[in-house]
Each structure stands twice: as structure tokens, then as C-alpha cells.
Amino acid sequence: MIVELVAGSGAKVTVDLSKDRATIGRDQAATLTVGIASASSHHATIFLRSGRIFVDDLASTNGVYIDTHKIAGPYGIAPSERFQLGYEGEDIWYEVAEEAPPTAVDKIDKAKTAKRTVLKSRRKSAAPKPAMPALKAQPAASGTWRFAEAMLLILLAVAIKFCVDLMRPPPRPVAVKTSPVAAVMEKQPAATSQRKDSEPAEAVEQATVNFDRDIAPLLERRCLQCHNPEKDKGDLSMHTRFALDRGPDFDAVLVPGKPDESPLYLLTILDADHDDIMPAKGEPLRAEESALIKQWIAEGAPWPVDRTLRAPVKE
Question: Which helix (H) or strand (E) element contains residue 92?
Fold first, then answer.
């Protein structure tokens, strides 16, 4: 994909991200050189991953910001979405100059669309059915005969509808797919009561949940292995509240105050053999651990602004 990087000062450069990453900074060797004081020599990088464009900080002095939020890892950006080098740095954005060449899947879809268009045009150009012969004009009838004809037509229409209704088969039941989250929301009271160790879970809900003591260690131990800036399985990273709020494709993962609408909690109480249970690896969360997450969300899911979680280091 060929894009044009643009800085608020007017500096711009065209780069093919499908071949290499682009760098931004004060160094003359950077792809886009800027002259602002808040920028480091090699401040940020722009790169293409899975068809999306990301910006990431290159361990700069002042960081990379988007809407006053400092990013802590790769951040997906859309065309014309601004980001800054430093908290009050000038805006930088990109415009798509040329899309990536079509893939084999794109070519197949295009061929299918063309085939459907040809078939549709053939149906339209088919010979029309012969028109019904025009009725001959009849002499004007008296008022009595007009009324009788109208009643006869009404009775005929009612009889036809009655026959059609008798011949029509009864409607077949439609199978409705239920998403894993919806299924959990419908069965949540029963599922919760069936947990063997539900009594400790009730005891947990009696006290206020502390993020640093109760939630952060649990997320780092059971979630950050797959959902961190380096791995971000399912396009979801959970190392900061800002990253968690974005979710995959901006889908809500956490709804503060509403644990029964938050997949972060609901997916932990699925049956142990369910395909969508989280965490996907290792043993399911214990009842008291799920209860901690539920109570934390119910209390508004407080998360200190400067708190960044770390994935456990493999020995």
C-alpha cells in the first residue's frame, strides 16, 4: 500500500508500506523528517500489518500521543487520523495514495460479481410474456347490474384467498443462532448457581475490589499471555485501560457498571468445554476469580490512568 505521510508544518513524503516500514523524526535519514523540538531523532514508525496501518513509538523521549492519550504499543490508525510526536507536538497523518494490488480472493470475488451481473442482464433481456388480449368494450349497464357485478367480484376474491390459504403449507420454524455471549446472558443465573465453589464467590462480593491487589495480578497471570502489545491475539491487547476500551475493531469488551453485558466477564463463565471460553489456554478461572471480575466491572471498572500491565516472563 502506497501512502503519503503529511506533517502539520507542510513536510510530506510518499512511501510504499507494503515493502518497508517508515520512520519519523528529526534525523535526516528518517523517512519523514520533522523540525519540531519535541521530536526525537527517530521518534515513531509507521507500518502495515494484516491490511491495517499502525503507528508505534521508537522509545522516544516524549512519546507518541493520539487525542491526548499516550500510546503504549502499536496503534491502528485510519487515514487522516492525527497523532502527535510529544504531548503538544504538531499533527502528523497519512493519506492513501494507492491501494495494495488485489489478492487472489479479491479476483475471485470480482469474477463472481461479473458473472451475477451477466446473468441478471440476460434475465432482463429475455422475451416478455405475451400480453393479455384487450377486453372489448361493453355497453353501459344499469345501476343494478353494476352492483351485482361488484358483489360477484368481491365474493370471487374472498373465495380465491380462502383456497390459497388452505393450500399454503404452515410456516417452518426458523433456527436462530445464539452467540456465546448471548447464551451466557440468558443462562447466567443457572450457570452461576451450578459452580461448585459458589460460596467463596459470594464472600468475595462483600468487600470492595482493589485493582492493584485483586484485578491486575489476575489479568497479568491469565490474560496478558495472549493479549499484549507484542501478541494481541484477536486484535485485543489488555496492557492498558485505553487498549482494552478499544477492543477488536472497536467492539465493546468492557461495559463499566454492567458485567452482564461485558464479554470480559461473560466469556469466563462459559462451560469448560465451550469453544469460546476464556482464557483459551490452561484451566478455566475459578468461581471466585470470575466473581472478582464481575464485581470490579459492577463497581465501574476503575483502572489507574498510569497503570500498565506486564505479561508474565517465561522462564
Answer: strand 91-98
pTM (2 d.p.)? 0.38
217-232 as b/e, with b when 16 or more CB fall inside 10 Å?
Answer: ebbbebbbbbbbbeeb
Please check whether residue 252 is in contact with residue 267, taking contact to mean a CB–CB distance below 8 angstroms.
no
pLDDT category at 209 given cuts 50, 70, 90 is very high
Contact (Cβ atoms closer than 8 angstroms) between residue 46 and residue 53? yes
Q: Identify the H or E element spanning 293.
A: helix 287-298
CA torsion through residues 288, 294, 296, 299, sign:
negative
Q: In sequence order, which residues have a C-beta less than 8 Å from that of residue 299 and are 6 or more positions away? A: 208, 209, 257
Tens-place pLDDT, residues 142-181: 678 888 888 999 999 888 888 877 877 666 654 444 444 4
> Is the Cβ–Cβ distance between 256 and 297 less than 8 Å?
yes
Taking a C-beta distance cutoff of 8 angstroms, is the pair 60, 40 a contact? Answer: yes
> Is 2-98 a domain of CATH 2.60.200.20?
yes
Q: Which residues contact 293 (CB under 8 A, 6 or more apart)?
A: 215, 218, 259, 264, 265, 268, 285
On average, the pLDDT of the chain sits at 79
Measured CA to CA, the distance from residue 282 to residue 313 in angstroms comes to: 16
* Cα(270)–Cα(78) distance, integer angstroms: 35
Distance, C-alpha 135 to centroid of its chain: 61
Q: Name every residue whose Cβ is closer than 8 Å to that of residue 271 and which is 6 or more positions away in sequence.
A: 191, 277
Q: What is the pLDDT of residues 42-55, one digit of tens each?
A: 999 999 998 899 99
Mean pLDDT value across residues 88-95: 87
Domain ranges of the chain: 2-98, 180-298
The helix/strand/coil state of 271 is coil
Side-chain half-sphere CA neighbours of 198 within 13 A = 9
